[in-house]
Amino acid sequence: MDRDEWLAEFCRRIGVEPPSPEEIDELLQLAATAAHGSERPAAPLACWAAGRSGRSAADLNQTAMDVSPANP
Length: 72
Description:
The protein is 72% helix and 0% strand. It is mostly helical. Helix 2 (21-37) crosses helix 3. The longest helix is centred in the middle third of the chain and has 17 residues, at 21-37.
């Protein structure tokens, strides 16, 4: 089972639509920004918080970049 198949099944089981390809890219960037701007465990925790926020993946990614000390 590849990433997209796993994600589709997980989303089906929890009753949400899977992210679009664009959202996947933004969320993966969010995770990378969190992991590199802090400690690696920040990535899944940031994604958990992102999912609860109701904000767009692009907006969340921008916020993560703003928070990261690696980004002036």
